[in-house]
Design brief:
There is one protein chain. The protein is 18% helix and 27% strand. It is of the alpha+beta class and 589 residues long.
């Protein structure tokens, strides 16, 4: 599908001097897209929340465009898939947030693919959450550079192990600050060419960890603005969330300050949005629903777009829009022609920002999660139970007006049914194997998150992301992964483990098809669980440990699909090991 180029809003945008013919050509704009994790629409002072101050985020709206009816999906991976591709996640195999269900089909085109093809330097920093193994990995989806983690959440925000282009590295400091610093370094090193930078902040997702610098003012704080009377608020959780949001704002300021110092602010498009509703009951403009809900409060997000050369300050746009609209919009801003393998669901928002709403047609934005579908028109929302609400008068979805507007309700119900039939058929059915050994990738991680335990082995927590396997107490126990090896080759195998010294000595076997590798745990390594010492409130996810890498040896893998099996052969003590991940490194011939 060929999408024609759309001219820049202002012909003279970003003009260089006039000393040569090349000076008449407008510079391609840079793009910085910032998405936060579990921050609600209400966690921004511009929206009226007096509990916190977010001046740098607010400035993006004041300097550019503010969309008041912008929608994402109820949870992380679906929103990111919508954002990256301009298509609803339900069309591309995204049906979960872990164990492979977060991956976009490989025939999808991301905005990074498009901009990289157009000559942009592309980079992603922070939380990916749309696939770990290449080519689902960010480096396989159009990003030249990646620093962060591919899982749905992380268990430690203070100098944890992260990854840089597939290789495990040690983070430096508080992760939101660390990834922002890396993004700024990338912009500095690419200041003389157009770049697209995707900053996927990891907060205020749990665990609720934030440095004292941000938390001190909220310790003991009693919020003036709270959730409405229908719900109960966890005030300690709110305090931590507010502190984390103020840290996000500080990091947004670091980005805008860096662009000014580099002389790039005028011709850089900065986009700010959230990935879903808030992760707790706290002030959110009186809307119904939080993260995980298809109601207004679960899917309404800010969208602020600053482009100083082309967007008038304090532009307010009321028309409904969604994460699916970002790809066609930024491509139009850059004046790019591009092709995709599938038609887009999103629309170019430039006419709205350019003051031309008359050409805008009535549209409907769909939200889906866990079997629930809701539909938002310009005025109404049809919820997942088929009730109709006039959102222009009733953001809290208190008064069902189905009896007053039966024709509207029936029309929107038909649209919801048609959308479900068109996009949900086959969603979540069939298991795609985890890809190993792509010839363009050096590293492939197979974490506990993506494996299946057998026998006595259990996860450290019910939530697979950032979990590990424990209670490996028998040689009959094993861990398996459904794998597709994409190209033959030799691989070095590294196991990340813990084991008390008294239980050291177990031998294990890794097998795939006819290939086997035997290794042994010769040294104990038994660090304590940690994370709780930095938590502001008790977490629901797994605590972490400092796992040790063990060089297990080398294995030859042949192209094809099969189970990869890790099983103990001898166990002299009471357990084999706790297992975090296996790293496969392709050996170049």
């Amino acid at each position: 599908m060929l999408i024609p180029a759309i001219p820049l809003l202002t012909a003279g945008a970003g003009m260089i001097g006039c000393s040569s013919p090349d000076a008449e050509k407008p510079l391609k704009p840079n793009f910085v897209i910032i998405i936060t994790d579990d921050q609600g629409w209400g966690d921004i002072s511009l929206h009226g929340n007096t509990n916190l101050n977010t001046p740098n985020i607010d400035a993006l709206a004041q300097n550019g465009a503010q969309f008041t009816n912008f929608y994402v999906q109820p949870v992380c991976s679906p929103t990111r898939a919508d954002l990256l591709t301009g298509r609803y996640h339900t069309r591309m195999g995204v049906h979960d947030t872990s164990e492979g269900g977060e991956r976009m089909n490989l025939d999808e085109t991301t905005f990074a693919d498009i901009f990289k093809e157009a000559g942009y330097a592309t980079a992603a920093f922070g939380k990916w959450h749309n696939g770990m193994q290449y080519p689902y990995h960010p480096n396989g989806r159009g990003f030249d550079e990646f620093y962060g983690f591919c899982s749905g959440h992380w268990g430690d925000y203070f100098s944890p192990p992260l990854e840089h282009n597939g290789k495990i590295v040690q983070g430096e400091g508080y992760v939101p600050d660390d990834i922002t610093g890396r993004a700024i370094e990338f912009m500095e090193s690419n200041r003389n060419k157009p770049f697209l930078v995707y900053i996927a902040q990891i907060t205020p997702h749990t665990p609720m960890q934030v440095p004292d610098r941000w938390y001190d003012r909220f310790e003991g704080f009693e919020p003036e603005m709270t959730t409405d009377e229908r719900y109960t608020e966890d005030i300690p959780f709110t305090r931590a969330a507010l502190a984390m949001c103020e840290n996000i704002d500080w990091n947004v300021g670091r980005v805008t300050d860096a662009l000014k110092e580099l002389g790039l602010e005028e011709n850089t498009v900065i986009i700010f949005l959230n990935d879903n509703g808030p992760n707790s009951r706290r002030w959110n403009g009186g809307m119904k629903g939080i993260k995980g809900s298809t109601d207004e409060g679960g899917v309404r997000s800010p969208l602020f777009i600053q482009w100083k050369t082309d967007i008038k300050p304090k532009t307010v746009i009321e028309e409904v829009a969604g994460a699916i609209d970002i790809l066609p919009t930024i491509a139009a801003m850059a004046g790019l022609e591009y092709s995709t393998n599938h038609p887009l669901d999103g629309k170019n928002l430039l006419p709205l920002m350019n003051g031309d709403p008359d050409s805008w047609e009535e549209r409907y934005i769909y939200a889906y999660w866990n079997g629930n579908v809701s539909v938002r028109s310009q005025r109404y929302r049809l919820d997942n139970q088929g009730r109709l609400f006039d959102i222009t008068e009733d953001r809290g979805q208190i008064n069902d007006i189905s009896d007053k507007e039966p024709a509207v309700r029936e029309g929107m119900a038909r649209r919801a049914a048609r959308w479900k039939k068109e996009t949900l058929e086959g969603v979540g059915t069939g298991k795609r194997p985890f890809t190993v050994g792509h010839p363009d990738a050096v590293y492939t991680q197979l974490p506990a998150r993506d494996g299946q335990p057998h026998g006595n082995i259990v996860r450290s927590n019910r939530w697979p992301n950032s979990s590990f396997f424990t209670n490996w107490t028998s040689t009959d126990d094993k861990i398996t992964w459904d794998v597709e090896v994409l190209a033959d080759g030799w691989f070095d195998v590294e196991i990340h483990y813990t084991c008390p010294q008294a239980d050291a000595g177990s031998t294990f076997e890794l097998s795939f098809g006819s290939s086997t590798l035997r290794g042994q745990i010769t040294e104990g390594h038994d660090p304590p669980l940690r994370g709780m010492e930095n938590d502001r409130v008790k977490r629901v996810e797994s605590y972490v440990k400092d796992f040790r890498p063990l060089n297990a040896g080398r294995i030859y893998l042949q192209q094809g699909k099969d189970q990869m099996i890790l099983q103990a052969t001898e166990m002299p003590g009471s357990q084999v090991m706790d297992f975090r991940l296996m790293m496969l490194k392709r050996i170049k011939e």
